[in-house]
Known about the structure:
heterotrimer, A: mainly alpha, Arp2/3 complex 21 kDa subunit ARPC3, disordered C terminus, C: alpha+beta, mini-chromosome maintenance (MCM) complex, domain 2, 3-stranded antiparallel beta sheet, about 20% helix, elongated
Amino acid sequence: MEHKHTQTAARDLATVGLMIALAFTLSWLESLIPFSFGVPGVKLGLSNLVVVTALYALPLRRSFPVALARILLAGLLFGNGFSLIYSLAGGMLSFGVMLLLKRGAFSPAGVSVAGGVSHNLGQFAAACILLGTNGLFYYLPVLLASGLVTGLLIGGVALPVIRRLDRAGFTENGKGEEKNG
Amino acid sequence: MRKPRLCAAVSTALSLLFLLPLLSGCGAERRYSREFYGLFDTVITVTAADASPASFDRRCGALYEELSAYHRLTDAYHTYDGVVNLKTLNDTAAAGPVEVDERLFGLLSFGKEAYRLTEGRVNICMGSVLALWHEKREEGLADPASASLPEEPALKEAARHISPDALVLDETAKTVFYADALLKVDLGAVAKGYAADAAAAFAKENGWSSAVLSLGGNVIAWGAPPGGGLWRVGVENPDPAADQLLETLSLTDRTVVTSGDYQRYYTVNGKNYCHIIDPDSLYPPAYCRAVTVVDKSSARADALSTALFLLPVEAGEELLSRIEGAEALWVLPDGGVRATAGMEPFLGG
Amino acid sequence: MKKGDLVLILGLLAVIGALFAVFWLPKKSGGGAAVVRIDGETVETLALGTDAEKRYESADGGYNVVTVKDGRVSVTAANCRDRICARHRPVSKNGECIVCLPHCFTVTVEQTAAPEGGVDAVA
């Protein structure tokens, strides 16, 4: 048992590292694609794929650092001071919402949709606090819609990935139970 | 296992730390705007990032005082007690050297420098010619039916008294002397730009790290607007039938000045005559409808926009190629738009 | 896809649709406000979504008549000397403004729901 415990712990750690690197790479890739809708905050959110997968494949104490690291690294390297605040607000809200919905009657696709929508909602809230609400509400439906669409796309990709991880025995560690302390 | 819990705790704490400024709103400055009248015969608007309405009000007051000083110094129609200004000079500097405030001296020196820089297109000594046009324009606006052009002989005679050599500036004594009794200085092409630079420097020192100031369309912007990004400055469309904004420029730490045929004009027999006069032909030019200059110095931008308006586009591009840091965008008579390559980064707001 | 997913997505779509209806429909060409200022002081804020015609008096017997129609605002009458304000085309986007210098009078479009096209200054 001791041996298996160490093995899984080590595997978790390695997975975390791998996922952070992957998330970072996806963020970088996304920064290369000129994706401009004229509305700030509309983006593909490729790295969300890693966060959603981590949520299912790892215990909370490991998936949270993945989410946080992704935001901090990408924000510090590819953004400016302000974008970091928006990313944090959106990313944290999104993670929290996805964590809550994970146990419910939702598949990873639905969770990802909720994550995408709440991510943009969090950014919107941050913008309201920083900029005041003049004219901002015009953006809200667009932001939520794009969050839904990107969440769906990401979720669609995450679904088969997580299924495979299920089969490989990874997600036993992550189905909401903290097996390893 | 203690470590994972510690990790979770640390990361949660870190993230909360970042969210704190968000929640407390500390350091979050808001955008405030104000408009003033009574200076430079136009409306001045300022939008700045400030901590509170009270603090914004205070700084606006200080800015107004600072700008008032420049307004008084460059006023060509009124004198003010204890101030030697442009009107004083135009009335008395032919009699003997007059000592002036260093700010006015600086502006006059810049004016002479602008003459050299623009190869004579911008001439602050053209006051006698401009006065004739001003008079006719005022008459034409008051009674459009009787609008007329200045008389040719009068223009030609006035043009004999526009040499910048007649404006004698003594750097050490800070005095101004008109070697030509009929010389009249007109600072219209450079005054607002010069004042804008001074006002911006003052405002920065006075605590506005981020603001955009418009002196009747002479725009200067610096710092980052609250919420990030760049300041958005619209370029007015000369075409009255289309939308008001031709282009939107995204920039900061720059100034934007436009010279156009639609800013001050009057109509004679169905034809419009604007306020910018060619020093050679003594009439308004028709090379373009408007030209917008983006530069770091507002005084220079003001001068350049006038100069480029008075030059064919090719000659204008040629002039700019010999100057560092200034970009321009022309609106041609047919409505077409042409811009220097360096304008590219500012376009597409 | 589980049942919960469908419910979630449909619910979100309903919310988003409602938001669009609330914030986009009433704004034909960027509804919001036309702020009338005299001498820098805000005198009145007219909603661009409501057609209106109002006369504003300024110092020395001056007046300007502002008309809001189809989401655009213009000055339709004035007794200033050059009437530049009255000749101005109707405006409707954030930051666009009509100025009557002799009367220290401006009407500026602000707080339109459509922030695109909004500017901080016009050169």
